[in-house]
Amino acid sequence: MPTTVALKTSPADAIAFLEVLSVAGVVLDRLNKVVVNTEIANEMGLVEYGHLTSDELKDLAVRARSAGETLTEEISFARNLRTAKVELSVKATALDDSHIILVVEDRTEAKRLDETRRDFVENISHELKTPISSISLLSEALQVAIDNPEQVKKFAKNLQRESKRLGSLVKEIIQLSRIQGGDLAATVAPVDVSSVISEAVDLNQFQADAKNIKLNVNAPEGLVVLGDSELLTMAMKNLIENAIVYSNEDTQVGIGIKEVDNFAEITVSDNGLGIPLDQQERIFERFYRVDPSRSRETGGTGLGLSIVKHAALNHGGDVNVFSRVGLGSTFTLRLPLYTIDENSSGEG
Q: Are the C-beta atoms of residues 55 and 70 closer than 8 Å to each other?
């Protein structure tokens, strides 16, 4: 049997050290009964009535004791049938000849982020493939049709459309990556929501005029939020643009703002196509399109509403939609209001 390599640290000292680090830890005796554990281990549900609640954790401790070496494993754990599983990284090692310590790290969020990044890269690869292939084919077609002015004009127009689509996609991927990073500390400042709406309306005015859609704005000044002005403007631009794209010509889009329960509540309403009820939960997903054929015609990337969602979450708010097919949609973006503390003005 291998000789156990012990750390020669008392159970109490080891747990005290892990408490300082805010790490979940459990010390077991030879019978695999819990001698001592950190408070975080209790909060995670790893220990109840002096025993481990996971057979996999017990098995890892037994194998580490038998092997006489440190073992590390990834374990899925659920406190009970009513709680969601969490992904744990567990290291089991000997403290001395009698005790094994389990050091447990919750990797659930890290794994979720890894999966999100992997899915994002796969989606990007798929989405970029179409316009890049189209640009390549159209370039070849232009060379072949060089002596046919009509064909050249047609292919050049399509090439311009695909180039614009590719540019929009790359731009929104960069924007979404920045938002998902969540690091807004350097760019956060008090922002008057009316100025954000005004700029977003200006950015969409040309597109609205092209379809003879009237943008009715009711955005009184004075409602201030703490945030990144550029990201908030981007989110509002996307909501208004979405309303224009999915509205018929000669209609109108309403944009309004009001204070509700210490939140700035911004609404964008249209009388457009509407969204089927079974698709409303998915419209904020990356690259999801309710009508793929219409998105191809309009150059939609499927990222606009995802950007809105992440911008809202990063600012402590949320976004939701009320829609009925044939009657139109109303998107509501809620952002917590910022109140300047008069006592921090530095006067006196």
A: no
Contacts 24+ apart (CB under 8 A), 231-234: 231/175, 231/178, 231/179, 231/184, 231/187, 231/311, 231/314, 231/315, 232/191, 232/193, 232/196, 232/311, 232/315, 232/335, 233/196, 233/199, 233/200, 233/203, 234/175, 234/307, 234/311
CATH of the domain at 206: 3.30.565.10
Same domain, 221 and 332: yes
168 plus 293 within the same structural domain: no
User: Per the structure, how many domains does the chain have?
Assistant: 3
Does one domain contain both 190 and 303? yes
Query: What is the mean pLDDT of the segment spanning 9-34?
Result: 82
Phi, psi (5° rounding) for residue 26?
-140, 130
246 and 284 Cβ atoms separated by less than 8 Å: no
CATH number of domain containing 72:
3.30.450.20
4 within domain boundaries: no
Do 84 and 223 have their domain in common?
no
Q: What mean pLDDT comes out for the span 69-79?
A: 85
Residue with tokens 């189209």: 134
Which pLDDT score is estimated for 181?
A: 58
Are residue 24 and residue 53 in the same domain, yes or no? yes
Would you call 196 exposed, middle or buried from its count of C-beta atoms within 10 A (0-12, 13-18, 19+)?
buried
The average pLDDT across 300-311 equals 76
Expressed as residue numbers, the domain containing 37 is 11-106
Strand duo 252-260 + 263-270: pairing: antiparallel
Output the CA–CA distances (angstroms, integers) from residue 66 to 54, 72, 94, 100, in the order listed. 19, 14, 10, 11
Phi, psi of 212 (to 5 degrees): 55, 45
- Cα 313 to Cα 68, 147, 232, 302: the distances in Å are 47, 54, 11, 18
Orientation of helix 229-245 relative to helix 149-181, angle to 10°: 140
